[in-house]
Amino acid sequence: MAFFRKKKEIPVGLWMKCPSCGKMAFTKTVEENLHVCPDCDHHMKVNGPTRLRQLLDDRKYEAIGEDLEPRDLLRFKEDVGTYEDKLKKSRLKAGVTEAVTVGRGHLEGIAVTVAAMDFSFRGGSMGVVVGERIARGAEDALARRVPFLVVATSGGARMQEGALSLMQMAKTSAMIARLREEGIPYLVVLADPCTGGVSASFAAQGDVTFAEPGALIGFAGPRVIQNTIKAQLPEGFQRAEFLLAKGYVDRVVHRRDLKKELATVLRYLEPRARPQEAVG
Phi and psi dihedrals of 57, rounded to 5? Predict the structure, then answer.
């Protein structure tokens, strides 16, 4: 009489495939490795809350602006579904309410405010709420006189919010200018990809600019640029390592070293006192 073993079912999500090398790895192993592929070192995308937990002490933060959620202010019409419908799907898929998460906490004992963008929510596109949350993060840093950190990853402005989305470039840039006037350190980490209006506004204004290895950074895509200027462009000209060599990026840092590197720079860039608080 033949005996057959019952086939064991593999739990969903137990394994994951690296989008770069294609190799399979235990999801838990990848998560413990800060979402970096253990085989090829590819830096995978992470959502905003995960990024904040990776950077902040005890993996804890106090959220800022979570009560703000995007709305269909322009009554944008699309061929398939409404903008509101797509927002609902994005919330379920990404597990967040918007393409940036902002919070206050401590980084190696240093009080900071951090804004981490999330490419899984509408491609990290910048709409009204994204701009407002980042502005509120900057205001919080200004009020507490603590450094402001931004992890930027985005496909650009959010088309469904039209000119209102583009206005966020000026709004966020104005807040960064206020930080600079007050001597409050502002650090930027560019993650893959960082393009469009985000790369042309607050993501380009850091006192020190870090980038993760291999990150795609630029305003427009390489094919668009090449077709526009009708010239052959260098291989990898929009990657973090190329931009480091050209001076646009100050440091390319592996994710496992990022927290330590940020803390080192923050200790050097300690916010200076207000004029009335300065000693004699």
Answer: -60, 140
Q: Is the peptide bond before 234 cis (omega within 30 degrees of 0)?
A: no
Q: What is the mean pLDDT of residues 215-219?
A: 96
**pLDDT at residue 268 in the model:** 93
Q: Per-domain residue ranges for the chain?
A: 46-270
Do residues 25 and 15 lie in contact, with contact meaning Cβ atoms separated by under 8 Å? yes
The position carrying tokens 């893959």 is: 192
Rounded CA separation 227/224 (Å): 5
Please name the residues in contact with 215: beta carbons below 8 A apart, sequence gap of 6 or more: 43, 190, 191, 192, 193, 194, 239, 240
Task: Tell me the β-bridge partners of 103.
Answer: 63, 114
Q: What is the CATH number of domain 46-270?
A: 3.90.226.10
Distance CA 194, CA 226 (A): 18
Nearest residue to 262 (alpha-carbon basis) of 204, 197, 212:
212
Global confidence as pTM: 0.90
For residues 149 and 51, is the Cβ–Cβ distance under 8 A? no
Task: Judge contact between 154 and 194, C-beta under 8 A.
Answer: yes
